[in-house]
Input
Amino acid sequence: MIIPQSPFRKFTALSFGLLLASSAASSGAIVIQELFDAIAGDPPGTDGSLDGKGDTTTTIGLTGTWTTIGSQGIFTASNFNSGAGLPGLPSNGGVLGGVWNKTAAYDTNIYAFRPLATPIDFSRDQVLYYSFIADNSGDVAMGIGFSVGFDAETLDFVGAGLSWNNARAIDTGELDSGNAAYACYGLLDVDNGPYGVRQHEPMNSVNGAALVVVRLTISSTEPDKIDIKRYGIGDTIESDPSLVTWSVSDSVDTSITATQLLLWINGVSGNLAGELDAIRVGTTWADVTGASATNDPFTAWATGAPNNLTGADALPAADPDHDGIPNAIEFITGSSPITVNDRSKLPAGAVVSGNFEFTFHRADIANADPLPFVEYGSDLTGWTKAQDGVNGVSVVATDDFYGTGVDRVVVKIPQALANGSRLFARLNANR
Output
């Protein structure tokens, strides 16, 4: 949602513009899901390879069918319910089903993939969350990620998993990462592909059922961040990701466009242990965990006194006072969502010493995840996040400049970044 505010202001020979944006991503949505309900047929079903199987009643955001590589032993079943006792959302939509290990091998070229209905662009600023249920009992490794390409030599990937008993970390080569949640990325034919352990939690942290939740912070200008939280039976999920102590954190510099959901599982165990289930990908923490952000400062601001907004009027993109300024922007700037034409705190722009200076009020209550930010561009379609020290941009905040609890933030964007003699900047509420 973009609300124009004097879209063109001619400060020099160039044209400059100010806009406001309230990101639609904040409302949350499941973009990919596979709970594997009755994947092997109506319960009890007939066990068989995942290869060639397609939609179930719980499939969202996937197309085509699963392709298995290296083994037909990535098996499906419709008679088990992985993760009983784990926190979070249900493992199924009402019918049993899941994937289990019958590979009886440690071959690191064993994996499966299925095309995404909508590719994921790792060159565009965005945050994605995903979760899955896994059980690495016995001596089994498994995980979920995203990949591009159709063969091992071109298939870049990013993912997270649980490791074998005797896994070796890539950076140390030591047996120090067994039975642990881990991050992985690279090419499928290099460094053990998705079984190659990058950053990981302490050895022997898990040998059983777990809910694995991953946050991917994708940046167009900086390395992408991978944060992993593993929950066990009886654990409680935090209401907001800002409260999470992550089990694993890593980063990878990639700009792939992921076209496939990637799944891997293998290992050798006397009882053919190892299960994987309930894959969910969304745009918010609540999408993939079911946790309610009861401590969200925006919600408290909107629904509490003196604003006392309810229902649709309390949403970030709503404008209950009909002054053209969405709630999310009023929240950031410290203005009122119930006072018409409260425009004194709106962002301002000026050209100073070769820079387009975008200045906005930032209330202390809004200086928390998800953080607001300024974007700039020249055509109103392609936007670049303004980051301090990147492309000559500077971001300077002055504490309490406008009074107690309201800071001034000045973002200086070099005039040289203008394309076609035009430069726009906008405040993105990131909600």
About this structure: Confidence is low (pLDDT under 50) at residues 1-13, 23-27. DSSP finds three helices and 24 strands in the chain. The radius of gyration is 24 Å. The chain has two domains: 2-25+297-428, 30-282.
